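Q&A log
Question type: sequence-to-structure
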Amino acid sequence: MALQINKDHQRFRKIVKGKIRSDLRKFLSRGELLGREGKRTISIPVPGIDTPHFRYGDNDDSGVGSGDGKPGDAVDGEGGLGPGGTQEGNHILEVEVSLDELADILGEELQLPKIEPKGKHRITSERDRYSGIRQSGPESLRHFRRTFRRALRRQIMSGIYNPDDPRIIFERRDKVFRSWKNVLSPQSNAVIIYMMDVSGSMGDEQKELVRLEAFWIDAWLRRNYQGIESRYIVHDVRASEVDRETFFRIREDGGTRISSAFRLARDLIDRHYAPSEWNIYLFHFSDGDNSSESDSRECCTMLHENLLPSLNMFGYCQVASAYGSGNFINVLHEHLSDDEGVITSRVNTKDDIYDSIKIFFSPGR
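Response status: OK
Response body:
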């Protein structure tokens, strides 16, 4: 019975994952997922799926509801409050899915290749590896399947097994336990530096697009690296480093000088993240408005000479704004179009996040 239940549960999980895959573009734009960040599992609503349940057959006997009434007859003489609905309701089931599962589905559906870590440095950590079976140990490590088979074999051989009453009673000699040993596990070291324009032209709608995009960037990179750090930079005409919560909530009302953020990112890398030891990802989010063409050209110079040699990739995501000029992405294309380390995307609505993620990580950097 337990094995059958496990098979049914696995089948149900496959159905859920299939539903998520078919609606992946919609799931990528769900803002309510963001409130679950930091948790290993999140609850997501999946419409059109029923939980496994018993289904009863038709009842041919007379009973409640039988009689001479015809379809359409009122329940009472007054006709009640009117006819009830005749259509089934939409079933929306909330299922628990781990972020790793979501990241795997994202990678499979978008056909993202596995990222190959760059750099010589690896963090080495200890972890327990279950490597064998032994006769003693704590009950929490008891190997149920092997214990069950040993007990069943013993009862059959001793002639006390009764197929009509198939009870299996464990004895001490039947029990076996998992054994483990400490192993050294190499972990890739990576840092993501997020930069965002918080000037007056970046409103709440633009920040929501940035937040959704950053959520899925985080999910995919964390699936590929065991050790990862995140740093956050905001800028208008000046740049400063902030914590994660401030990054997504702050709003300024000044002008824009993008080079200030690039300069701060360069200083962070120089002080803390040697390229030989770290896989470095730099993402910038903006509406493309900048204080001057000369500042935009200065950004390209800094990227080419100071930043790109240290980076796995530089990703620039331009979000649509009614107030921004949207020209910075054109300057990047003009000056850095031949550099494979620069990847750009445009996100006008939440539906564009799907294509943006695919653009950023299809090369598998």
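Response note: The chain has three domains: 2-51+91-109, 124-183, 188-361.
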